[in-house]
Specification:
Number of domains: 1
Number of helices: 5
Protein name: DNA starvation/stationary phase protection protein
Pfam families: Ferritin
Largest sheet: 2 strands, parallel
Family: Belongs to the Dps family.
CATH architecture: Up-down Bundle
Shape: elongated
Helix content: over 70%
Distance between the termini: 46 Å
GO molecular function: ferric iron binding; oxidoreductase activity, acting on metal ions
CATH superfamily: Ferritin, core subunit, four-helix bundle
Number of strands: 2
CATH class: Mainly Alpha
Structural class: mainly alpha
């Protein structure tokens, strides 16, 4: 990877590693927005409208997180990849495998599991970024806080 520049206080090697970690996070954030919208469109049954309407704000926040991650990559001098094939190429997490019209409970449980992996991957990225770039680490920390809140919302529906 070739950086266009480095930010003051970070060397090229640290910047390249941070960019690679952030690119992985960007790909998962982009996919998460698609997964959440998929669930939004396909939930059925009891509590349909509550779950349907709860998911759209999550989509918006996760897309905003992706935008913030992409902008951080650019700020670090990296070139980001927001194309669909980058999501597949960068995937280090399990596919979301629930498809079609399913009950709200099925989608909620599947999304809770998806958030488990998403949050764990973000926490791993935080630990790695703590050693490289605290600013990037803080960005991902803020993202985790929102994701954990959304997961709490979902868990509260099936508690």
């Amino acid at each position: 990877m070739t950086l266009a520049f480095t930010v003051p206080g970070l060397d090229e090697a640290a910047s390249e590693k941070a960019v690679a970690i952030l690119q992985n996070r960007l790909s998962q954030e982009q996919e998460a927005a698609l997964v959440l919208k998929h669930a939004h469109w396909n939930v059925t049954g009891p509590n349909f409208i509550a779950v349907h309407e709860m998911l759209d704000p999550q989509v918006e926040v996760v897309l905003a997180q992706a935008d913030e991650t992409a902008e951080r990559i650019a700020t670090l001098g990296g070139t980001l990849d927001g194309r669909p094939e980058a999501i597949v190429r960068n995937r280090t997490w399990k596919d979301f495998d629930l498809a079609g019209r399913q009950s709200t409970t099925d989608y909620i449980n599947a999304l809770i599991e998806y958030y488990d992996a998403f949050i764990a991957d973000d926490r791993k990225a935080i630990a790695e970024l703590d050693e490289l770039d605290l600013v990037s680490s803080n960005i991902v920390q803020d993202h985790v806080q929102e994701l954990e809140k959304f997961q709490w919302f979902l868990r509260s529906h099936v508690a």
